[in-house]
Design brief:
heterodimer, A: two-stranded antiparallel ribbon, 15 helices, about 5% strand, B: alpha/beta, Rossmann fold, Alpha-Beta Plaits, six-stranded mixed sheet, about 30% strand, binds adenosine-5'-diphosphate, binds magnesium ion
Amino acid sequence: MGIIYQIFLKNIRVYYRNKPSLFFSLLFPLVFIGVFGIAFQYGAPGNSPITIGVINLDQGIPGNTIVLSQNGSKLSGNYFSQEFIQILKNVKYEDNKTYAFDINLYNSSIQAQSDLLRRNILALVIIPSNFSLLMMSKIREFVEKNHINASLNGFPPTNYTSNIVVKGDSTLLGYTITSTIVSQIANSYVNFSQANSQRYVILEGTTQTKGITVFDLTTPGLLIFAILNNLGTITAVALMDKRFGFLDRLKLSKLKPWQYIFGFTLSQILVAFVQVPIMFFAAVLFGFQVTTQYLPAFVFIFFFALSVTGMGLFLASFISNPDSAGGISAIIGTPMAFLAGAFFQIPNPVIIGKGGILGDHIFRVFDFLPATPTLTGLRLLLIDGVPLQNLSFELSLVAALSILYFVIGLIFYARRHLRTN
Amino acid sequence: MTFALEASEVNKIYDSNVHALNNLSLKVDQGLVYGLLGPNGAGKSSFLKIITGLIKPTSGSINLLGKNIRELNELKGKIGYVPQELVFEDYLTVEENLKLFASCFSISNPKERISELLKSFQLAEIRKRRAGTLSGGQKRRLNVAIGLVIDPEILILDEPSAGMDPQSRNLLWEMINDLSKKQDITIIISTHLMETADRLCTKIGIIDKGYLITEGTPEELKARYNSSLSLQITFKKIPDQNKKIEFKNRLKKIIEDCEIQEDEKSLAVRGSNLELILTKFIETSTEIIGISNIQGININPVTLEDVFIRLTGSNLREGK
Ligand SMILES: Nc1ncnc2c1ncn2[C@@H]1O[C@H](COP(=O)(O)OP(=O)(O)O)[C@@H](O)[C@H]1O
Ligand SMILES: [Mg+2]
């Protein structure tokens, strides 16, 4: 334990006493936070409507049931889903002028799907067939909670469930914004009974959404970028420990290779764990809207840092000059950040689609890079507020890829540098 | 008698096809201070890395402390090795470096050991300085101190005093002398400096181009190759070339086995017949060069350097 701690301590000290490391790992990403923060915090995304599709599968209120609105008029047919769509149409950005969505209504889901694939629409909102029944169950809940005397014949029970589905490419900005806004609105529309005033706000038809800014969407990408920026230092340290005879000198000691690697890896993970809160804090200063999900984010960060350590070990087994470690790492690391979509969305073709061997999940070309699923996971956690337990697919993917990357790096490094030749 | 080191027929051919060691066999008795003397590129570092198990020989076998070097695990913590290069972490302080190595060697009482080392290597005052910012001599001292965090049974030093200032060098020599006297430790030290080998070592092996040329105590070596003196005469002004030639020819006639070295303003002669050299050298020089042009006459004891030059035909400092 003492040995591992000393190796760990050594690497941490090298990190914070080494100006280029500090610069690339902290200062540089912080500058990005500042630049993105200032550039994008006020402008809601594009300030132009996002084109989305809506399919209304709602079968309406059953004909033999009587549903009355609060002012006593009788509601029938697709009243609820129509109202919901109207609300979506009326959503405006914070400037109170620009509509958030440009909505295409579809009757055929085939047409909608094909428009989605062609990116004619960036997201497809599917209102389920039992939407009206869901609303009726919510009315029952409201009535029972407030002890209102009313006849609820034909109303479903209060635990009735139904799902609004938002389909699309989750790496696309438009999709992320749409799914977030739609879920916010759907929740407040459907759960009107939980706050009396809410329904009325929505019924006014001028719901504002606190627009997710481009900066919000970029912040997780910048976290990834910062950790990828450690690659240069990781590679250089792993290389120098060998090149300058440090490992040789230690070969005569009781230090075992695994202890060296363990201490080394731990130190890299700690560096990431220090970077992330600092970046978070800076991002919040620039207006990043944190959800309460930031602690689970460290699970993703842990695995991602592991994968970056693996990449560093890998590179260190091919590069021989420590001076070129920084440059080569940047050539490898920065494109990874780009391909993962850390700065802006880039097309990421789907290899395994929904309904394939991954069930409800998809696998895209750049998902092979641990940065990509890490970013997806972080966005879902931090922006959409999806709880960690619903991210088991993303988490397993990140964990599996990271362990794979780490093991590959380790094997190469061990063969090249931890053996006597 | 067990040997601390038994190397037999060690060859090392690097990937680059450099034949660094040629059938080198060497035995070092326990408790000796053994000097491996040779010019740069002779193969000293290669040999020391092989006997510490850091690189593999192309062929040959090595026993260290009675164990085959392939069982390095059993030797861990018994070998103190100071590489020729400075090997420590520049970003750590002197003390942090010692702590790191002490911990990796799992020594029992690190605090005490470290403060001992800091004191004896005169590093105590700069214990909080980052190693990267030390002077050349201080770095060298730290490099050696790290090799001594353990109490080694065998201490292997690869050109430890290269690049040291005279004070540091003296300090190191004293330390090594003390160490070899105080305890039953075997020390193997490589150097390209005669002075180091002469002052420190109880036995010397001369190595050149990967071959072990000869072995012996410093005195044996000097005696074997020069039962003689070296006399040097320096002139006030550069003598006539003809006179020099005449002087050399005359000397060679009188003293059969003599060897003459000259530069502009001096002539040196070496040979085994002391009496003859002493009398005839002075006689002839005054006769031919003239007493008025003679600045002085030096009598030099033979140095190991002389031995080396005779053995390898090359100068130590420059290598081949
Ligand atoms: N890693 C290596 N690869 C190739 N050649 C080497 C290597 N290390 C040393 N040599 C060569 O082996 C010879 C002996 O080198 P070395 O053992 O360092 O000599 P010394 O320590 O006596 O100066 C030299 O010609 C040197 O260039
Ligand atoms: Mg050497």
